[in-house]
Structure formats: C-alpha cells, structure tokens
Amino acid sequence: MITMNEVIREGHPTLRKKAEPLTFPLDSSMTELGEELLAFLINSQDPEIAEKYELRPGVGIAAPQVDVSKRMVAVHVPSQDPESSDPEFSAILVNPKIVSHSVQQTCLSDGEGCLSVDREVPGYVPRHKRVTLEYYELTGEKKKVRLRDFPAIVVQHEIDHLNGVMFYDHIDPENPLALPDNIEVLGSEEE
Ligand code: 4LI
Ligand code: NI
Questions:
Q1: Which GO terms describe its biological process (predicted)?
Q2: Which has the closest alpha carbon to 184: 79, 123, 109?
Q3: Phi and psi at residue 137, in whole multiples of 5°?
Q4: What does the pLDDT profile of the chain (191 residues) look like in tens digits?
Q5: Cα→Cα distances 125→87, 104, 178, Å
Q6: Which of 44, 77, 107, 112 has the most ligand 1 atoms within 8 A of CB, as the residue to mutate?
Q7: How many structural domains compose the chain?
C-alpha cells in the first residue's frame, strides 16, 4: 500500500526530470503501480482510512511522485453531486497527452496543493478550462476524453509532473493573485 512515506517531496531531483514513456504490454510491476496509485487516491479520500494511515487527501498523483520516472498518473475526482457515488472522473492514464485545449483559461480560487509540497503556496495557477486528452489504459487500449473545469485542472497538474513542472512554476512571482485575461476563477462562489 502506498502511504505518504513513499511520496517524495520538493527538492528531490526526480520531481524535476522528464519521465519516460511506457511501452506495451506493460510489465506487471507497472500495472501494479498504476493500481496502487489509484488505490492511494481512493484511500486518501476516505476519512477513516486517511486518518489511520495519515494520508493527505488528493485527487491526482503521478508516478514520479513515488520516485518512478515513467509517464503514468492516476486521477480520482469525486462527484460534485453528493447523491451520486460515481466519481466525476477516475482513471489510470498511461502516456497521457493533451491533444487540444480551449483558449479560455481557469484556475482554482484557493490555489493548488500538491502531495509533494508540504507548504501552502498562495497564488492563481492558470490552466486550460477544457482539454482533449489522449491516453492508454493499463491494458493498452487507447482512449480519448474531453474534460473541463476541476478534472481538467487535475490532469494538467499531473501531466506537468511528467515533465518536471511544479504547479507554482505557473504562479506570477510579481503578483501571485494577478488574473490574466480570459480566465474564469473556479471554486469560490463569493465576491
Ligand atoms: C478531503 C476529502 C482549498 C484549498 C480548496 C479533501 C476528499 C486548496 C482547494 C479532498 C485547494 C477530497 C485539492 C488540489 C486544491 C489548496 C491534488 C480537497 C482533495 C481539495 C483535493 C491536484 C491541485 C490536486 C480546491 C493551497 C493534492 N486538490 N485542492 N488543489 N480534496 N483537493 N490539487 N486546492 N490551496 N492535490 O490546496 O490532488 S490539482 Cl477529494
Ligand atoms: Ni502534484
């Protein structure tokens, strides 16, 4: 089982490397890793399990965050509708690639967090509001999906990890709360 002990933190050189593409068929160590990454997210979102194992909640994790420099990520975004138990988007993505995206940008009103960053970094992280994503499942099946808003943000954050990019690289160092043109702030209903 993956716990926070397996998650490397900022300063570790693997987080700044470009991860290697995977080839199919995957070997069993890589399918197991994919399944473990997704299980980590599901566990981290369960209040009892998270408390017991001291897991920090997350909706996305990339293989480089457990020091495996391969192009694999897991995403598990729960439904916004508490009535529904189906997640909004849940997948293990192998060799994911954004093939097109909106001009419109979005960002989280409260900023982004990362399992590899043990501090709060204030500031808006501009992301594409809509993305078309191509990836492979663990079986080698090719998929193409369109995502928007929070799931799209999460996928962009995780693909950044495959390229050695951290979320705060995107924050304007002069004015962290500056909003670029054509951006929609997501999350807070206030203002
Ligand atoms: C408990 C159970 C407030 C602060 C609001 C928590 C189940 C921040 C937001 C969760 C913030 C779940 C999240 C991400 C932010 C903040 C990630 C809570 C887990 C909200 C996911 C990858 C950025 C993703 C919205 C510094 C570990 N996740 N919140 N950012 N949730 N979560 N990111 N931002 N401010 N990070 O962190 O998984 S993309 Cl689901
Ligand atoms: Ni991260």
A1: translation
A2: 109
A3: -80, 170
A4: 999 999 999 999 999 999 999 999 999 999 999 999 999 999 999 999 999 999 999 999 999 999 999 999 999 999 988 888 899 999 999 999 999 999 999 999 999 999 999 999 999 999 999 999 999 999 999 999 999 999 999 999 999 999 999 999 999 999 999 999 999 999 976 54
A5: 24, 14, 10
A6: 112
A7: 1
Domain range spanning residue 153? 4-186
Any known ligand binding at 107? Answer: no
According to the annotation, is 12 in a ligand binding site?
A: no
Cβ-proximal residues to 51 (8 Å cutoff; 6+ apart), any chain: none
The number of angstroms, rounded, from the C-alpha of 86 to the middle of its chain's C-alpha atoms is: 19
> 170: domain CATH number?
3.90.45.10
Q: φ, ψ for residue 184 (rounded to 5)?
A: -120, 130
Q: Is residue 191 part of a domain?
A: no
Q: 144-152, long-range: CB within 8 Å, 24+ apart, which pairs?
A: 144/99, 145/89, 147/89, 149/106, 149/186, 150/59, 150/77, 150/88, 150/108, 150/186, 151/75, 151/77, 151/88, 151/89, 152/106, 152/127, 152/128
Ligand 1, residue 113: give the atom nearest the CA: 37
DSSP per residue over 136-162, as a string? E-TTS-EEEEEEEHHHHHHHHHHHHHH
